[in-house]
# Entry
Amino acid sequence: MPEEVFLTPDGRINYIIEDSKAVIRSYSGDDEELIIPEELSDVPVRVIDKKAFMNARRLRRIVLPDNIKKISDWGFAYCKNLTEAELPRRTLSMGRSPFLGDTSLQKIRLRARVRYPDKGWLAMTDKEREDTAVLLAKAQSLKNADHLTDCKKAGTDDWFEKLDKKILEFIDEPDEDGHTELILCGEEDLDCTLESFISAKRKEKIRLSFLRLLHPSKISAGTEDYLKDYLVSHSVGCESTETWQLMKEEFGHLKAYYEYYVAAGCLNDDNFSETIVDLGDKQAEMKAYFLRQREGNKKEEEDFFDRFTL
# Structure
């Protein structure tokens, strides 16, 4: 079946017409944003073929049409700069790991189709829809979580419940699990020591905990407390300090993260001095916030005791 071409602003999409549907076979070009049309050659776009957009390294945002029914294996794999995808909120047939290796992917936004509005979805708050977009993107990289990639169910109470179950299963998984498999890979350039593996795994658990806590739609009090306790248990003064390491290395410039670090109790009277000393001259804004919080707490204590002076 001959391929046809649809020209984009900075590239080209190759597609075929098969059984009254358009199947996108491949893409080449330098587009940073792509809005796939509803129709090609006057037939609906139904399928993104296997590896169709693989390695589209300039692509930052992709919008798929309401007509789409299937994203095949690795359809958008290794699009290193892809940060956002917009999909219709409907059940899609998903192949293997359609967003594999998309390390920059932050949000998969869902769109209620105009012709068939989803009242439940539209009735949700903007915050709930935003949290769903962030967490749905993260679900793409969770192991054995194909049941969480259903766009039709994403954002429902049941979906959040299953997501949190998967997150807690990962948090509870022994830190050493998976190390043997990594050794058996036989890749010499990997740091395969058990100590480094455990630390890296804890950091991934902490990243996931922060992500869920900062996007808390429909989270139960029990799950919230459990994830908070995990963060606190790896802060300064504990046997392992991966929460604090990540604050310095990755999150220290993000206000929402360091505010939550304080609110969760990771910074306290016992570890304050050690934390400030260890921070040194790094992350100036975060350090200033820590100091302001400390001074604010002192002032509240002084005001409290002043009320008892004669």
